[in-house]
Design goal:
Two copies of one chain form a homodimer.
Chain A: H1 10-20, E1 29-30, H2 33-39, E2 42-47, H3 57-65, H4 70-73, E3 77-80, H5 84-95, E4 100-105, H6 110-118, E5 122-126, H7 130-144, E6 147-148, H8 155-171, E7 178-182, H9 187-199, E8 204-210, H10 215-222, H11 246-253, E9 254-260, H12 262-276, H13 282-293, H14 295-298, E10 302-307
Parallel strand pairs in A: 2-10, 3-4, 3-6, 4-5, 7-8, 7-10, 8-9
Antiparallel strand pairs in A: 1-2
Chain lengths: 321, 321
């Protein structure tokens, strides 16, 4: 098994980028004069909402699946997730011709359940709490022998997510002052921080987090993991707590964490849909909101934002409720 | 004045592409496995919704403004339009440092009025009928001496719109079997038909039109212009009738016109937002709906669709009413 057992080094991220290149999109970076005028910054949106399965999660999932041998893959892979990792893992498993067992809370949005089914994932529903998710996953593992692929607390996943920022440095003809990534469990953020460290001498990584789910902010300040307690935010991809593998990387390489208000998230989301004509999910809008809430900080800077995904329920738009 | 006075030839379209290149986006072509599976065709979406000012109209407007001399531009330009041409013309005029006088019906959507204002256009409101629009425009022309830039019945505009299809042939590594463009006044469609004729030996151009505004379909069948009467469709960019300059080009070079139902337009629009994460306006969805309604016709073909624009009111989504 060539799953990574330590913090990915530069070579591991290069390997990941090379390994996944034919199975993911090299997503475009979009810019908008109107957005720049409204914020006072030069913003570069790395559009992972246009990624396969609609989110950056495809990077980590494909890297994980393609780092396993055929023998290891024989009994499939499994995870618990109500979100984008579930669909990305189901898709990656299908690419390797193996099974993906996905534990989803029974109140998962139909659109997410449908995505997992579309890619051929085998869903087991459970009660909507962490204990039920973990025990259901344990049972499935014992029954099937499937390998667990954690959504973020896994160095191979982190190396995969790191390829998004690596691509930014290859696509832009200059090194941005900042890259902003949203933070939930910290897979994308820690990968981004590693790539900035390895591939730039200059770019600082900033995290954006909803105030209603600010465990990363509080953990970062305290220097130890403080788990999320009853987080409340429309950014449903950012409800999870930091992991033991992501937190140390974040402590070492992330420059700062900004928290943002719910109304800013909704406003930023609508702004991007309206002016840039792309569908971004609330978790992605958190990064945009961080710029709008801190205009003085980002003024005249070149700042890349990772637009993490575009999966949302078009029947329930937050500005219409 | 180097406004074109005859049907654009190949050179005129090359000139237009060269002239506008620094002032418009070379928009991406997006593909989607899910869309291809749902339709049975290989579809290539030319994303003019990501164009400057949110629509292909920027191509024609920039070409028109940059084909005029400084002396000709001194007194500004004018048009009547409630839609994308208005914003595109205001933007193009600002690029040439001249004024754009825009006559808009008083019931124009706020979002369209705001776009024209954003680009510095000078708006005159009038009663929402063609007679009022034309008489108000005439008055403004007499008062200001501004040059009228018709939204579609103008060969320089047609040459500009033709650059979208020209770009498709440069971007794709093969010639598609079909290009589908929506048809309203016929500026985009006639330009697309000319480009297919000049730059491909193979690609057939197909028009898509709402059944509730099927003047182009009826004109095409009759061989003479039959004006639109009380058109009813959510595709608000396609309400206009064909023009004397666009119709003959369409008669000569367009292969076929498909009309589509309103519910298909809404369904196609939501499908593209949901699966491809891009915001497209109803007029763009008409082209997508034409494929969904005629799956047997497009099965296994390589078909490019011109996604004409992405300007819509996010507070009034057609699948939520």
């Amino acid at each position: 098994m060539i799953h990574l057992n330590k913090v990915p080094d530069k070579a591991a991220i290069d390997v990941a980028a090379n390994r996944i290149q034919h199975f993911i999109h090299k997503t475009p970076i979009l810019t908008s004069r109107i957005l720049n005028e409204a914020t006072g910054a030069n913003l570069f949106l790395k559009c992972e909402n246009l990624q396969k399965a609609g989110a950056f999660k495809s990077r980590g999932a494909v890297n994980a699946l393609f780092s396993l041998s055929e023998i290891e893959l024989k009994k499939g892979v499994c995870t618990h997730s109500s979100g984008n990792h579930a669909a990305a893992l189901a898709r990656a498993a299908a690419l390797r011709n193996t099974k993906a067992y996905i534990v989803m809370p029974e109140n998962s949005p139909t659109v997410k359940v449908d995505a997992v089914k579309y890619y051929g994932g085998q869903i087991s529903f459970c009660a909507p709490n962490l204990a039920a998710r973990e025990s259901t996953l344990k049972t499935i593992q014992l029954e099937t022998g499937a390998i667990e692929i954690h959504p973020y607390n896994n160095f191979t996943i982190i190396a995969g997510q790191a390829t998004a920022a690596r691509e930014i440095f290859l696509q832009l003809d200059m090194e941005p002052d900042f890259i902003i990534a949203p933070v939930g469990g910290g897979g994308l953020l820690s990968g981004t921080a590693l790539s900035a460290n390895y591939f730039s001498g200059k770019t600082k990584v900033i995290a954006a987090e909803p105030k209603g789910a600010d465990d990363a902010y509080r953990s970062f300040k305290a220097g130890e993991i403080i788990p999320s307690e009853n987080p409340v935010t429309i950014a449903d991809g950012l409800l999870t707590s930091l992991g033991s593998k992501t937190f140390p990387i974040i402590m070492e390489h992330v420059h700062r964490i900004f928290t943002v208000e719910e109304h800013s998230i909704v406003k930023a989301m609508k702004f991007i849909w309206e002016r840039m004509k792309i569908v971004i999910e609330p978790s992605s809008a958190v990064a945009v909101a961080a710029v709008f809430e801190n205009k003085a900080y980002f003024e005249h800077t070149n700042t890349a934002l990772i637009i993490s995904g575009g999966n949302c329920d078009l029947n329930k738009l937050p500005w219409l409720t």
